[in-house]
């Protein structure tokens, strides 16, 4: 179309619709990594922690941490921090001593290197060169400088200088969900975009000796990196959508900003986690889910939802959080199996954890064959903020490739997309004009 500028010049522009992708964004590949520094079985953690922190004389705190660890549902965790580093930096044990600069110097290299390990796995699975990445979204709380981990990762992966980078800092445990939502928007609004989402955390920045306020954090958190590549149609040959993202919402629970948070201080990053967090999430999670499904389906989505008919990718912020969600949504004991397995094997790796859950979930889907038609991703963090993504299984009619050989040309690819209604006797039309209905009960009358 022709556009006349203020100076009278007339230029031709393609229509904006040509800039949009075909259909919803999808996760096309996943990679995960953990540091090789230290692997600590949970039943040994308390003794080891109190030994290296010279705190065995704090017998009451030690017994309290043992009780907490026994209830976490965690079997082992990975850490970048080693005893050798602690011997060289005894100031890491005392929050009153300045140590932030030394911590940041260490993680400035370690965080992007850990993310690189996960990214190389994701890129290999994706099957296209790293130079085809158009956008990079990096979430981490383990860095407080600029240029940050996003630029270092782009350099390590040899991404193009024109790659569009975004750093998400101090989002904590909802960082993975936020990064995926941002990647969805980028992919759907920039035709041909391929977004590398990286989440990497190293707890060295918040490590300290035991006191009455930090025991839960010491019992839960571990180190890890998760990477996902996100794109929307048209898909290139060999690209395989794993999880589509048809709707994404963010909700902040009012008046909970002091319940969960992080604070950067001279002695490192301090975590604050109120005991009410699991119940606050449980009380609000269903409304967040309904909001996300209504964003996909319209306001017709009712309140009587059969959540147990779906599959679930839930950030395992802790065993009580999973227990509360399971009870509120009336989920069967196996519905949160992927989340519980990741918690058991790795602990809470903050924003990276949800990528591990998605990786576990896709493996279960491949092994089991049949899978529920619809699912949801949930991540929680400071705010209290809840990220919700509605995702169908990949074998859906709105992500069907149709190869049509054009006479005298090479094969071309087109795609069909439709958002469907749920058990209300009506239907939605896809881009190819076909009418589609879905069978899952989401309470739509």
Automatic annotation (TrEMBL):
Keywords per UniProt: Acyltransferase, Transferase
Domain of life of the organism encoding this protein: Eukaryota
Domain Chalcone/stilbene synthase C-terminal: residue ranges: 244-391
Segments of this protein annotated with the region Disordered: 426-445
Domain Chalcone/stilbene synthase N-terminal per the UniProt entry, residue ranges: 16-234
Active-site residue numbers: 173 (acyl-thioester intermediate)
Keyword S-adenosyl-L-methionine: no
GO biological process, one term: polyketide biosynthetic process
Pfam families, per the entry: Chal_sti_synt_C, Chal_sti_synt_N
Gene3D superfamilies, per database record: 3.40.47.10
One Gene Ontology term of the molecular function aspect: acyltransferase activity, transferring groups other than amino-acyl groups
Family as reported in the entry's similarity comment: Belongs to the thiolase-like superfamily. Chalcone/stilbene synthases family.
Name of this chain's protein: Chalcone synthase
UniProt lineage: Eukaryota, Viridiplantae, Streptophyta, Embryophyta, Tracheophyta
